Amino acid sequence: MTPPASRTTEINFPTQPAVASVYLLRCRNGALYCGWASNLEARLQLHKSGRGARSVRMAGFDSLACAWQVDSRSQALRLEAAIKRLTKAQKEVLVHAPETLSALALQLSIPLKA
Question: Residue-wise over 97-113: b if at least 16 C-beta within 10 A, else e?
Fold first, then answer.
């Protein structure tokens, strides 16, 4: 009996780090929902189709209010958690002046991508 031929799998490592997005959605009832995604366009399609987050399904998707890109999933999760702790008024400031997020990101040592 001959041993099976060895199978090798080629592993392709990404040449650039994965980029994640943190975003704020405006719901039809005026609420702001914060989330993160590795593929923002696909995630928005889920929200629009009613298959995204439960709170967005209940409140109704209106529009993407703003979004920021970061270098990794872990940075996105930390930034999302920090934004979710903000008051609605503070989130509205982020929507109207997205550059103000840089101070919060700096406190968390998260570089924002352009």
Answer: eeeebeebbeeeebebe
**CA distances, 54 to each of 5, 35, 72 (Å):** 49, 12, 25
The half-sphere exposure of 35 on its side-chain side, counting CA atoms within 13 A, is 22
pLDDT digit string, tens, across residues 33-73: 999 999 999 999 998 888 878 888 888 888 999 999 999 99
**SS3 breakdown of the chain: % helix, strand, coil, rounded to 5?**
40, 20, 35
Cα(39)–Cα(54) distance, integer angstroms: 19
The answer to whether the CB of 51 falls within 8 A of the CB of 83 is no
Write down the pTM of the prediction: 0.79
